Amino acid sequence: MASVSMAAEAAVPRTRRRWNAAASLALLPAAVIVLVVYLGCMVWTVRLSFSSSKLLPVLDWVGVRQYSRLFANERFLISVENIVLFGVLFIAGCLVLGFLLAVFIDQKVRSEAAFRTIFLYPYAMSFVVTGLAWQWFLNPTLGLQKIVRDLGFESFTFDWLVNQDMVVYTLVIAGVWHGSGLVMCILLAGLRGVDEDLWKAARIDGIPTWRVYLSIVLPLLGPMIVTAVVLLATSVVKLYDLVVAMTHGGPGIASEVPAKFVMDHFFERNNIGLATAAATMMLISVAAVLAPWVYARYIRPQGRRA
């Protein structure tokens, strides 16, 4: 009996090794695709940014000439200003509105599932659909302005969509409407994990509800807030379809963003070198956003365990 049990125990590792080998073999095509397609394309893009490529890619070397041209390009500088303004307001708006929606639903309201679905529904739509819907709603000749004027308020004006100074804020409005549902879901999961004893102790001490949320609940939601910020920030860097659907970068170049600058120089202006330089700067921006999160989430905990 002892020999049988030892043989069975010895067979288990062999079986596991076979399963692990089969799983590794099944994942091999995906790993090859990631290495060749994704990483290969990133390396190729960075390489072309140091070339003089125009209509077709060439492998000459011009140093940082494309980057010098890039940061001397007024259109690119405006796109950077726009994306920074949009990013700050978009992330802040999504966090505030998403938190308020999460607090509202956490009050165990009736039809909670229906409210969750309604608030999350905009995020289920693509940015193209969101942009087209808000483009119609904010169009001075079709949407909000016309509706209010038809009600008798002839002097009402809301022309942000065609106003160069305000058009970026229309993108922020549409973006917050689209992204706040995601933040709501993330923070609602965190609120449901708050110990009920904290609320009981706060009630006994007579602490106002708003103070409990600011001083106790929000610090507990720190990891969820960081996750939401990372997800929102990556969507800010690659912002393209919302702009194309709502404003197409206009009026003029007032709502230009880096992703649209890249696409236009790739496919319309036939300037691959300048486009890849801008794409490389976007890659650096994404890496700058993800690196602290990856370090705090994966690398630092391993260092502590060691």
From TrEMBL:
**Which topology term describes how it sits in the membrane?**
Multi-pass membrane protein
Keyword Transit peptide belongs to the record:
no
Record-annotated membrane-spanning stretches? 21-46, 83-105, 117-137, 166-191, 212-237, 272-295
Compartments where located: Cell membrane
GO process annotations (BP): transmembrane transport
Q: Which UniProt keywords apply?
A: Cell membrane, Membrane, Transmembrane, Transmembrane helix, Transport
Query: What family does this chain come from, according to its entry?
Result: Belongs to the binding-protein-dependent transport system permease family.
Q: What is this protein called?
A: Sugar ABC transporter permease
